[in-house]
Amino acid sequence: MKFGILTSGGDCSGLNAVIRSIVLYLDENVKNAEIVGIPNGYGGLIEGESFPMDRRDVENVLGRGGTLLGTSRQPFKLMTVADDGPSKLEKMCENYKKMGLDCLFTLGGAGTHKTAALLCMEGCNVIGLPKTIDNDIYGTDVTFGFQTAVEVATDAIDRISTTAESHGRTMLVEIMGNKAGWLTLHAGIAAGADMILIPEKPFSVDAVCEFVTKRRKSGKPYTMIAVAEGAVLASEAKFKKSERTFVRTALGESTVTRHLAEILEERTGFETRASVLGYLQRGGTPCAYDRLLSSRLGGFAAALAKEGKFGVTAAVSGNRITFNALAEIAGKYKLVDPEGDIVRFAEDIGIGFGV
Ligand code: F6P
């Protein structure tokens, strides 16, 4: 059998660990397994690029961040657009056949899974693997890369907290996550943030100002606020992301965090600073949890391929590794329930959500 592996969308820690585990499993368990790496995500498949891989290629990569295959973003909405020639989807199916693949492993996030489901509908044998620091893939309790990002963001908030305390400042820390606030929620709670702002719970500036002022009055000289990249003001919640970005750019503020920091300083009169963690959260060595999870998911997906179980994506449910049909999860997101247990617990211990 011939197997292809690609990594698509934003990278994260743990991708190499998954690739390694797939290669090792196939090498150990499938007679005459032929494995090829497809570079730069779906971009490589569109161009028909591949290179042979074996276990020597995955030596010493378990703890290495990034992806040894390279990655790219290929917007889903452009997949079926055909101007003069074949669409990207048609090219991918053609190259899948030309490469003689029996199975393609696609390591990626929600967008990658949507394209994977399309490839399946066109007759390709695909098995997905749930990657993203955002933890927003439908049907899995957790995605690989998430926990490492939680550790990084938690450490960053911890560090910023000590300088916030020294200076008696209000500190905003922007954490990745455009649609989903999982990373901000988990890191915010783990680092003891006073307030957490996430996309699923639009916030009011008045409520944030009141929270900060009240803390001061009660003798707390500083406030730590974890802000998701996609957090929205209640007043802008009805607008599309592009419209919000347009207005913020016109106001000269690049992100919601900087926007809020300016308003907070002006309205509360307290020194306020903003830090944007950015790509720190995606890079570097995976934590032990992610190394183990990635290895288990990779081995599991390779076992599915050996059994001929295609059109699925590996997932975690409880403490078990399982799978979901790609067709069932494609196009759906797993978002934080704004009234759910974890948010409620955080509120119960006094964490503010700006509402
Ligand atoms: O991969 C997920 C993610 O890191 C999101 O949290 C973030 O909004 C986005 O990717 C950033 O994308 P890019 O790498 O294209 O800047």
Task: Provide the descriptors you would attach to this structure in a database record.
single chain, 355 residues, alpha/beta, Rossmann fold, seven-stranded mixed beta sheet, four-stranded parallel beta sheet, 12 helices, elongated, binds 6-O-phosphono-beta-D-fructofuranose
Characterization of this structure:
This protein is an alpha/beta fold and 355 residues long. The protein folds into two domains: 2-145 and 286-329, 3-Layer(aba) Sandwich (Rossmann fold); 149-282, Rossmann fold (3-Layer(aba) Sandwich), CATH 3.40.50. 40% of the residues lie in helices and 16% in strands. It contains twelve helices and eleven strands. The strands form two sheets. A seven-stranded mixed β-sheet has the order 3-2-1-4-5-10-11, with helices on both faces. Helix 1 runs parallel beside helix 10, helix 5 (146-167) packs across helix 6 and helix 7 (205-217) crosses helix 9 (256-268). It starts with a strand and ends in a 7-residue tail after the last helix. Bound molecules: 6-O-phosphono-beta-D-fructofuranose (F6P).
